[in-house]
Design goal:
With 739 residues, the chain is of the alpha+beta class. The protein is built from 21 helices and 15 strands. The longest helix has 42 residues.
Length: 739
């Protein structure tokens, strides 16, 4: 079959296929087909020479179409783009220079022509330049600038092309041509520094895992360190007895004290590692001070082991014990804080809204940020930073005090420096921030909250307003309907429907209670219009053509509603239509223990102003006082007409975050407010006591060293002084635990 040219046409389609006439052919046919006549030797046809090979073999062509290839004369002529050439540089911009004399023996020179053939190596290059600008390479003067031909410029497209010819300088090449990396170009006048690399923020989950890893081992090591410290102090007290003042006995006691100090240092290895890392980073804190004290204590112990004098190793064991206590509190607070942070996305927080109701601020729910929370968490609190500065000052001043004291040899200098340094180290300084913060973090974890570090506690200071809604005092599940009584000619469904429509504007548990009754009875739904709120404890509205009043007993009496006998119930909602009482709903308000404790905490906290913003008209001052047994004189009861502006109020953009929370609950708010204020008080007073005690110890010991009162600088006196000043610091650090 003959195919038309087009899609699917192949070259073998144009060749006619000969039909097969027979299945086999002989040798003569083969010779005849290839130009021979019969057998080459003229012999007769032998049947044995017959070939079984068929004459033609036909096979089916694959059905896959191939692209049509037109004849060669129909191919389009290839368009080769012209070679790019560099634009000629204007001759006027180049400096004028004397040209050499042209050689007349050069082939192809034409007087006044514009085409010259100049030999370049083993070939001739055609130049389209004026004849007077063409000369041989051997005639080029050395002081002429390098000029490149257009061919060379076209081969190197990365070469820079200056606007003007430089004077006696080669054309500079780009960094790409020379194999160097190209730097990003900056615009002229851009002197701004590159943006600094932001420090990667570690996630709360990783912080939680890291702090939790060594908690059991750290607690066990602290118990062992406490036992070793008590044993070392016992040896020190025994060594101070006059009956055991022999040199040999003192060496045995000093050897035991030195061994116990080494064991305490092993138990507190993480404290020493933390101090060493701080020193390597050129920063100083109390852990770095402990490193110096440990080295001085070991040095003084080895000296006393040879001289038979008393050492200060037991007091240094006491310092190591308190430093490990502070580090343990730090990790415990981190675990409890990150336990809350890793379970929330950080989008809900308690924030301080400034200038609300004439006070310095109000605590309201608002948006939170996990990055801001972690950033505040990493910052060192100001009181703790103050103790770190004091530690560096103590190290320097104690060195100067030891140098000023009269000394006979290096042993006396080491003894004086160790005594001043140990006496000036406040033991409670290791607990100033970490121990109270750990106690508060544990309490806040139970309520699903985490403090924004020291910044969050500081923002809770001063006068503070805490709004309390009806849902905070009496959640919807805490309200129950004790009984219902209807009066007048109105149907019960109509009374309930009217009451539910008006109570929608109140919200809270009462509204849910009326809506539940309306759904159970299948009442018709109404919409209240012209809603009016009264300070006497009620609300009025218009429904259809009826005027409806809903409120407390006091409100109904103030509005002149006729009250039948036996209807005076204090905890009840009264409904009146057109001035006639039609229904009384007795409500039971259940008091939660956590809410009662929270109310007592807020009322007992100085500077905190709990403000009742509940829209429920039954929640009055006498009602709150009888239910929660609190001093309502410290509370602020807003008029009912002003409470609506607090309903659903959230913190604005100018507010400051204080704590992350899982959900907004009244016990959580009360714990955050009271806990933050207790933490702030404990930390500030603890830091003050630590600094005063440390300064007094350093001053007294420096004076004793200058006076040479070696007997007064005994181990027992220094140990008693340190423990006496540590007691108030320990008591203050436990303040947040008692809230």
């Amino acid at each position: 079959m003959k195919k038309e040219k087009g899609e699917g046409f192949t070259w073998w389609d144009a060749v006619p296929i000969q039909e097969e006439t027979r299945d086999q052919f002989d040798l003569e046919d083969i010779l005849r087909e290839f130009g021979g006549e019969g057998s080459p030797s003229g012999e007769k046809d032998d049947p044995a020479l017959r070939s079984p090979v068929p004459l033609h073999i036909t096979r089916e062509v694959e059905s896959a179409p191939l692209r049509y290839s037109p004849p060669a004369d129909q191919f389009p002529r290839r368009q080769i783009p012209p070679r790019k050439t560099a634009p000629e540089q204007p001759v006027t911009d180049c400096p004028t220079m004397p040209l050499p004399k042209l050689r007349q023996d050069k082939p192809g020179s034409v007087d006044g022509g514009t085409i010259r053939f100049v030999p370049v190596g083993n070939r001739e290059v055609e130049e389209s330049r004026p004849a007077e600008m063409v000369y041989g390479l051997e005639d080029e003067p050395d002081d002429l600038p390098v000029r490149r031909s257009s061919v060379a410029v076209a081969e190197r497209e990365d070469e820079e092309k200056p606007d003007k010819c430089p004077e006696n300088e080669p054309v500079p090449r780009t960094k790409r041509a020379t194999g160097q990396k190209r730097k990003p170009e900056r615009t002229k006048g851009d002197h701004s520094a590159p943006p600094p690399k932001r420090k990667p923020i570690i996630t709360p989950e990783s912080r939680y895992r890291t702090a939790l890893e060594g908690m059991p081992g750290r607690s066990a090591r602290r118990v062992v360190c406490t036992l070793l410290t008590l044993l070392a102090l016992t040896l020190g007290v025994v060594g101070g007895q006059e009956s055991l003042s022999g040199a040999s006995t003192q060496r045995i006691l000093v050897f035991g004290e030195l061994a116990l100090l080494i064991l305490c240092a092993i138990c507190c290895w993480d404290v020493l590692v933390s101090g060493i890392l701080r020193l390597l980073r050129l920063r100083f804190d109390l852990n770095a001070l402990v490193v110096f004290e440990t080295l001085l204590g070991l040095t003084h112990g080895f000296i006393c082991l040879q001289t038979g004098q008393a050492s200060y190793c037991p007091v240094i064991c006491l310092v190591l014990n308190f430093s490990l206590w502070g580090l343990q509190s730090r990790y415990r607070g981190t675990v409890d804080t990150m336990e809350v942070a890793r379970r929330t996305d950080g989008t809900l927080a308690l924030r301080r809204e400034p200038n609300k109701s004439g006070d310095s601020g109000a605590i309201l729910p608002g948006e939170g940020s996990m990055d801001a929370f972690l950033e505040e968490f990493d910052r060192t609190p100001a009181p703790q930073r103050l103790t770190e500065v004091y530690g560096l000052m103590l190290l320097i001043l104690s060195l100067f005090g030891a140098l000023l004291a009269p000394k006979e040899d290096g042993v006396t200098f080491i003894r004086n420096w160790t005594a001043i340094l140990v006496s000036g180290t406040p033991l409670c300084g290791f607990l100033v921030w970490y121990r109270p913060w750990a106690f508060l973090a544990t309490k806040l974890k139970e309520q699903g909250a985490a403090m924004y570090g020291w910044a969050g506690a500081r923002r809770m200071g001063g006068k503070l307003t805490v709004p309390i809604a009806d849902q905070d005092l009496f959640p919807a599940e805490g309200l129950k309907l004790n009984g219902v009584k209807f009066f007048g000619g109105a149907s019960p469904d109509r009374v309930i429907a009217y009451g539910a429509a008006v109570m929608e504007n109140v919200g809270g548990g009462l509204s849910a209670l009326f809506q539940e009754q309306a759904e159970q009875r299948g009442c018709r739904r109404y919409t209240a219009q012209k809603v009016r709120r009264y300070d006497s404890g009620g609300i009025g509205a218009d429904i259809l053509s009826d005027s409806v009043l809903v409120g407390s007993l006091r409100f109904m009496q103030a509005m002149g509603v006729d009250m039948p006998a036996g209807t005076k119930v204090s905890q009840a909602v009264y409904v009146a239509i057109e001035g006639e009482l039609v229904g009384v709903f007795a409500v039971q308000y259940g008091v939660s223990r956590s809410v009662a404790e929270s109310m007592g905490m807020l009322c007992g906290c100085r500077g905190v102003n709990p403000t009742i913003t509940a829209l429920d008209f039954i929640i009055t001052e006498p009602f709150v006082k009888s239910k929660f047994r609190v001093d309502t004189g410290k509370m602020n009861f807003l008029p009912v007409s002003q409470r609506s502006r607090w309903h659903g109020l959230e913190a604005g953009a100018d507010s400051e975050p204080c704590a992350l929370i899982w959900e907004y609950r009244f016990p959580t708010v009360a714990m955050v407010v009271t806990g933050a204020r207790a933490l702030r008080t404990a930390v500030l007073w603890g830091a003050l006591i630590a600094l005063v005690g440390g300064l007094m110890g350093m001053a007294i010991m420096t004076a004793l060293t200058c006076l040479g009162a070696q007997e007064t600088m005994s181990l027992v006196n220094i140990g008693l002084f340190q423990m006496i000043w540590a007691v108030p610091g320990i008591l203050l650090s436990g303040w947040p635990r008692s809230i």
